[in-house]
Description:
By secondary structure, the protein is an alpha+beta fold. It has two domains: about 10-35, no CATH class; about 80-200, 3-Layer(bab) Sandwich (minor pseudopilin epsh fold). The protein contains two helices and 13 strands, in the order βββααββββββββββ. The protein has helices at about 25-35, 50-95, and strands at about 1-5, 10-15, 20-25, 100-105, 110-120, 125-130, 140, 145-150, 155, 165, 175-180, 185-190, 195-200. Strands 4, 5, 6, 7 and 10 form a five-stranded antiparallel sheet that branches. Strands 9-8-11-12-13 form a five-stranded antiparallel sheet, covered by helices on one side. A three-stranded antiparallel sheet has the order 1-2-3. The longest helix has about 50 residues, at about 50-95. It is elongated, with a radius of gyration of 39 Å.
Amino acid sequence: xxxxIGRATLKIRMDPNNNPRFRPLPxxxxxxxxxxDNYPCIARGFTLxxxxxxxxxxxxxxxxxxxxxxxxQQKQYEYLANSLSHLITLAEEEAMLRxxxxxxxxxxxxxxxxxxxxxxxxxxxxxxPLTDKLFGIHTYSQNIKLTVKVQNKEIPxxxxxxxxxxASGDIVPxxxxxxKEDQKPSYQVTGYANGNVISEIxxxx
Length: 205
């Protein structure tokens, strides 16, 4: 009969009275087992091929992430351009329905429509901000830069109405360029005197 203790195997010889008498293995055999446990692990280094493969994989993942971010930015520009185009077109219809003169104002990260009307109990006329969900304040990402040109002149984004919409639905000609700081615009919204508003990919005149 054999019994395994640790890594050393001991032989057991039973006597007639079933009293085991252990006869250990020679000392040299036990020492050889211990010596095996003390062998140092040999660390295998990376080959040049493996390192190159890792570098290629990292570059591919980085390229995909960069492309995804770029596409997301383009989608943001496109969405903002389409939103402005639709809102200005709706504001033209609103101006004719009221009837009233409306204006569109911009800051660095928001835009809002105003109505030009008389102050109660006075003869003075002022711009009053519209606060409803459709024509109230709309914000856009800080990573987006807007350049607004009215009648071919760039205007400051100071929160004052610069794009006018008359009660007949006519508008002051304008171009809104949408893109990233220090780069060429990606999209533009163009408004014509007859009231047409077009959102399109940016093109230099």
